[in-house]
């Protein structure tokens, strides 16, 4: 009873609260909910937290990283935030090797991010660009689109490397 | 709060101070319950006669929405428009019901009773107050519609937008995608657009009446049998 009501709330409030309705929905630990489980709830995408596997979209050598820590935010990282990650899968000859602990900037998130004009944007996957401690990208190319939010977070270098700004 | 009272007093002059005080106090007990309001009313007694002529000239002869719009420049700063519109709505109902004893122009009120624009129906005061937000919402929507040409956007049609993104140094970008959802909520009607950007699917949600959307053009229509096309997320439609 409470769960169905809560998920109804999550459906209505999903676009309004921009993901902060996580507490209301009661699906705290699930980042992907199976569609068809509950007829009222859509897929409630949540934050990027510990153990989230992300795609790497630069040419630093890594292919997949797993998030260890979201540097800002109690619940997790969102679009444009920095995370600490561990490299799970890497290309054989690259700048980073498997098992290395790196920093990354989230450039694509499946959770919607609200903009100041009332619009929202969400991508189809979670992707990250590896950076060093100062915030400079390790790789030299960035694939795929990046959002405008990076400009406010002062990741101008990544924006210049990107081919498409969503 | 004080400026609101100031605006309300000027509106009161329109229909005669006596009738206004009787009906208005009853209706707006919440607003005028503070001490501030009473002192303000006494204080502005002096300015009533001086501002009356100015008011009568500027207001014109018709009530309804036109009065509201005219009241805006004359009103003191800080008055919110919804408050004024609400008051004007109440004022017109007051005038239609009560007799004015002051020397306000009675031909105006009688004309207003018959010539009120039909799109706002004035019921009894408390009945109007119940869906006042709905009335205000509709007015706001019509205002935006009159200003900009906004086509009808239904799910399934392919749409091209010219948006001005505030985070991107005011650069107008064109966005082309398929509308997968539309949520009607008065002024906050939003629609979701899904598009493929450089191999990655991107969904954006836009308020339909946002001033940032400079132009909307419907390119194509797809026949769909659904209002929300979320199944397209799994389908991975190629090339858009």
Query: What is the residue-mean pLDDT of chain A, rounded to a whole number?
Result: 79
Taken in chain order, the helices and strands of chain A follow as: HHEEEEEEEEHHE
- Helical run tally of chain A: 4
Instruction: Please count the beta strands of chain A (DSSP E, at least 2 residues each).
Output: 9
Query: Which whole number gives the mean pLDDT of chain B?
Result: 66
CATH superfamily of the largest domain in chain A: Ribosomal protein L14/L23
The unreliable regions of chain A are: 1-10, 12-39
Distance between the termini of chain A: 40 Å
Helix run count of chain B: 10
Measured by residues with Cβ under 8 Å of the partner chain's Cβ, the largest interface is: A-B, 26 and 23 residues
End-to-end span of chain B in angstroms?
51 Å
Residue share in helices of chain A?
10-25%
Rg on CA atoms of chain B, Å:
24 Å
- Tell me the strand order in the biggest sheet of chain A: 1-2-3-4-7
Which residues of chain B form runs of ≥5 with pLDDT under 50?
A: 1-51, 55-84, 102-113
Please give the oligomerization state of what you see.
heterodimer
- H and E order of chain B: HHHHHHHHHEEEEEH
